[in-house]
Amino acid sequence: MSEVVKLERQDEVGIVMVDSPPVNALSAAVRGGILECVKQAVADPAIKAIVLTCAGRTFIAGADITEFGKPPKPPGLNEVLVEMENSPKPIVAAIHGTALGGGLEVALACHFRVATKEAKLGLPEVKLGLLPGAGGTQRLPRAVGPELAVKMIVGGDPIGAAEALKNGLIEEIVEDRVAGGAAFARKVLAEKRALRRLRDDDSKIAAAKADRSIFTNAVAAMTKKSRGLEAPFAAADAVGAAIDLPFDEGLKKEREGFLKLLVSDQSKAQRYAFFAEREANKIAGVPDGTKPRPVNRVAVLGAGTMGGGIAMSFANAGIPVTLIETAEEQLKRGMGIMQKNWEATAARGGIPADAPAKRMALINGVVGIENVGDADLVIEAVFETMAVKKEVFAKLDQYAKPGAVLASNTSYLNIDEIAKETKRPQDVLGMHFFSPANVMKLCEIVRAAKTAPDALVTAVSIARKIAKVPAVVGVCDGFVGNRMLAQRGKQAEKLLFEGALPQQVDAVVTKFGMPMGPFAMGDLAGLDIGWRSRKDRGIKSEIADALCEAGRFGQKTGKGYYKYEGGSRAPLPDPEVEKLIDETLLRLGRKKRVVSDDEILERMMYPMINEGARILEEGIAARPSDIDVVWLYGYGWPIYRGGPMYWADTVGLKHIADRLSVYAKETNDPRLEPAPLLKKLADEGKTFASLAAASKAA
Ligand code: 3H9
Fold it and tell me: Which residue of 282, 565, 598, 675 is surrounded by the most CB atoms within 10 Å?
């Protein structure tokens, strides 16, 4: 008898219950257990119908990803599904939680499906660089038609129970999965319903067989944002096979595609990213069992771009917010922008039509910091200078309720110093959101010297609740992300002095897979900010200064490192910039040379990795994978390259260390010498991953 799958009889209905925490993934034991129980139920004359359901928090959430890359163990999932689909007795999948990947494929091999109303159903394999490998690409189009199937398989986002019902993916929404599933099974028996085997039902793909553009248009729409990725295109091909080929041949095509992706570098990187994200939830140095403090209301200080975006993130998750400004006018402006933002999303169909009003109702806009009193978490997003932050925290100490977590959204300032302004440094930490805060997923949670473990756990847990990806970091200038980015920025600027052009540098970076290069990014952020700060600190940056002196502040003035025409955000190379660079170099007596794309890539990436090594040495990040999470979710690092530290391992640390030494000498920049940790790993022929493995073993 299986340990993780049990068969129970309720009158004429056999209940096959999968119970394999945490997410009932399809390990060999679960596959074997399902096969055994289904066979047993089919053989039992007292059982007339079967319900397949799960214990715990969710229906089967997919194949067991930890088994990928290891020798396959029988039975294969397809073998189990053939047995189920061939069952002469009706099988009903009763779904709750998330039926994902192999989980939904199991449900699709059942003859009927019911789900609870909060259930989500999807084939997210593309997000792991894969395609569904157990019939999903063949059965889903037959269940819901090719358009929605392409959306779900090529896009990878799940749908809710209501949409599943509307599109024929489930038969009914039920209150309780076991009782509802059994009741539905009895109905099937009473009505003598024919068993619906999706493999034999071509009715929903008939239209696309006659007019293939139905399928190709859906694919074109879904792959618009798939630049550089292999899986979405391979997944689309597999769905195409469902339309073009008989079921069994389509299944064979799907299998070939799945096995090819399974061993691909992209999928390996994407699977690594999946686990890196989950690993980041585990906070080093916090006692086991530390519970988060309850957070029922949040106060956000500042209704500007950052504050507004943060407030929106909480309201999106249904958490009430007190949004605080210093004057009515700013408050009104901030509230207006939020409303417009939500209305634009609703108009695009991204959220329901009544959502903007509902979300606005969760935001109580007020003037005056003294209104923070009923908040369990306060996040300040005020002007980014130490003096202002200190003033705000001194006031928070006065007005916030005891035990409230006090967070600063600073992007580089010292939280220890800020915490000193209060008599409760144990409650103070950083929550660094990324712009636009309602969109970007990363939240760097900055642990200060005196931050209490439960305050830290509260910040991590609330960040997850509002669908952010938290990464715990330590106090230093710029934390993890911006500190590494600064190294890239320095090199980008130097490259201009050596003969590269902004568009050449940016092209190399975007070809690598980043959404934007450093110069387009500078134009977006506004070049005047850095200019002002350089002036304050008495620092010069000849080319950037010359641009600003010419009134080129970036996108907002229509000109920066690029020109922007007709209000467009598309950067266009500008001969004027080239002239300005040439003149500056001439004035400084610098000689131009041809800089190769290979050199640009190395100088953009390796100094960041070097800084990442220093960050690890100093304990600012606990794990290399935490650094990768920061870059994946805060800076658009291409997921198929896993993150900078993961990518560095694939390049080879010895090569990176050697090249850094060369650049350190060539450009006379000692900061480019390999960090001691990088050098040590390189000399020992090791990887950053070996550090994580060693710390796990310890
Ligand atoms: C597939 O199915 C291929 C088939 O088509 C072909 C087969 C032939 N395997 O996310 P959480 C672990 S590909 C192993 O924090 P939540 C996770 O690592 C798969 N482990 O919880 C974590 O462990 P720990 C397609 C898994 O409530 C723990 O479970 N399916 C798997 O926030 C809790 O996870 C997917 O891509 C897995 N499949 O979210 C779904 N899933 O505690 C992937 C989770 O030690 N999973 N774990 O860190 C998810 O999207 C989310 O985990 C889920 C729950 C929404 C289910």
Answer: 675
